[in-house]
Design brief:
The protein has 87 residues and is of the alpha+beta class. The protein has one domain. 36% of the residues lie in helices and 36% in strands. It is built from one helix and four strands; from the N terminus they run ββββα. It has one helix at residues 52-82, and strands at residues 11-21, 24-32, 36-41, 47-51. Strands 1-2-3-4 form a four-stranded antiparallel sheet. The mean pLDDT is 84.
Length: 87
């Protein structure tokens, strides 16, 4: 009798987002694994492996850039309302 040492569950997300590959729009597929995420386009064999740490760091960087953009825009609008900048 054999035993199952490791569960072989495959968790796959097919997103609504699309990317163009060779002239055709294809859905983005994310395969979740314990230490990495594998990103590919539906119907292709090209895969990109990304660590979850890398996904987190990219998300934090994007959020920081958006936050900085909002702060600068608010600062500009406050100056404009006070009459400091004329447009």
């Amino acid at each position: 009798m054999s035993r199952l040492r490791e569960r072989k569950t495959k968790l796959e997300f097919i997103t609504n987002a699309t990317a163009r590959y060779r002239g055709k729009d294809r859905e983005i597929v994310i395969e979740a694994r314990p230490d990495t995420a594998i990103i590919r386009l539906l119907g292709t064999r090209v895969k990109y492996e990304v660590s979850w740490r890398g996904v987190h760091d990219l998300g934090a960087r994007i959020a920081g850039e958006l936050s900085l953009g909002k702060r600068l825009r608010n600062k500009f609008l406050r100056r404009r309302l006070r009459g400091g900048v004329h447009a």
